[in-house]
Write a structure and sequence with these properties.
Helix content: 25-40%
Oligomer: single chain
Distance between the termini: 33 Å
Number of domains: 1
Strand content: 15-25%
Amino acid sequence: MPYEAEELRFLATEEKGEVSALLMRPDGVEFLLVLGHGASANMRGGTAETIAERCFDAGIATLRYNFPYSEIGGGRNSNAVCQETIRAAVATAHGVADGARILVGGHSFSGRMSSMAAAEEPLEGIAGLAFFAFPLHPAGKPGTERAEHLADVTVPMLFLSGTRDGLGDVDLLRPVCEELGDRATLHLLQTADHGFKTLKRTRGTDEDVFVEMARVLSEWAGKLA
């Protein structure tokens, strides 16, 4: 089916200027997800776009956005610039939410930037954070240092992580989530890697992995206080 997206712009930072955003909103939605992209992609990349489309099918609105570096090209912005951009995207989402509750997250890098921003200072008026393949550690370097800030996040968190994710060893991610207690929900995506490619023969379900993520997100969000 064709998906229509409203094109928006907002001020990322005073220094970096405006960036683009895409709003996709089904009728009568309860939740709007502020959705960031992976480190080497942009808001029109296949992963972010597919997540947005499957969320639309599940009745969740999305506001995809670019960081300044993905808007104009060049090297990745500092964490501070990326986090300020996320705060500006959240403020923009509140302006177009039309009563929907705000969720924030993204694929890989943008999910971690969102959690770091929320740990430093709560993101205004959000109901929860959703991580599509949280990058717990660099490839080939297992560790949990990147999760230390999660203890300072005060809203519920959903981790959607593949069992073959080379940046999110399940044996490390599971205890991280357990330590976070009721704030963290971990949903494992069978045979999915960091980019959500799956091994169909051994996956154990015919459900598309992006459909699964949108379904689980909708179910999780529906239980938020």
